[in-house]
């Protein structure tokens, strides 16, 4: 399967990453907002490791439309958090979509 599709970036932070995230947050969000303005973003946001949605972030999730896995990987590699070594592990994969919501929800 090749050509345009949905790709996800899943990243896990190193321990105690919040101090490193804070000064880069605006640039990190700006890149994602630019893609969202192009209509390419399906979901984007930080991850918590607890239900309360409180405390420090522990990673990131990003799902967007790209032309190829190579393009998605290159975009992810240029993320300010990735470049700063905040991510312990980052995985970029193409999604073979079976179901997708047709309305946007915010939580």
Summarize the structure.
This protein is α+β, with helices and mostly antiparallel strands.
Topology (SSEs and partners):
Elements: E1 5-13, H1 18-21, H2 25-37, E2 41-47, E3 59-66, H3 69-77, H4 80-83, E4 87-95
Antiparallel strand pairs: 1-3, 1-4, 2-3
Explain this structure.
- The protein has 107 residues and is an alpha+beta fold.
- It has one domain (5-95): 2-Layer Sandwich (Alpha-Beta Plaits).
- Helix content is 28%, strand content 31%.
- The protein contains four helices and four strands.
- Strands 2-3-1-4 form a four-stranded antiparallel sheet, covered by helices on one side.
- It is globular and about 40 Å long.
- The chain starts with a strand and ends in a 12-residue tail after the last strand.
- The mean pLDDT is 90.
Distance between the termini: 33 Å
Topology as H/E string? Answer: EHHEEHHE
C-alpha Rg, in Å?
A: 14 Å
Percentage of residues assigned to helices: 25-40%
**Count of spatially separate domains:** 1
Tally of strands: 4
Q: Would you identify the CATH architecture? A: 2-Layer Sandwich
Kindly name the structural category.
alpha+beta
What is the overall shape? globular
Given as residue ranges, the uncertain stretches (5+ residues, pLDDT < 50) are: none
Under CATH, the homologous superfamily reads Dimeric alpha+beta barrel
What's the helix count? 4
């Amino acid at each position: 399967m090749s050509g345009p599709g949905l790709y996800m970036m899943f990243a896990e932070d190193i321990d105690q990453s919040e101090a490193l995230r804070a000064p880069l947050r605006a640039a990190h969000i700006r890149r994602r907002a630019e893609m969202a303005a192009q209509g390419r973003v399906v979901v984007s946001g930080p991850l918590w490791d607890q239900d309360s949605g409180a405390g420090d972030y522990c990673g990131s999730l990003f799902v967007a439309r790209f032309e190829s896995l190579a393009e998605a990987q290159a975009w992810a590699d240029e993320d300010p958090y990735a470049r700063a070594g905040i991510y312990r592990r980052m995985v970029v994969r193409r999604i073979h979509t079976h179901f997708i919501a047709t309305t946007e929800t915010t939580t």
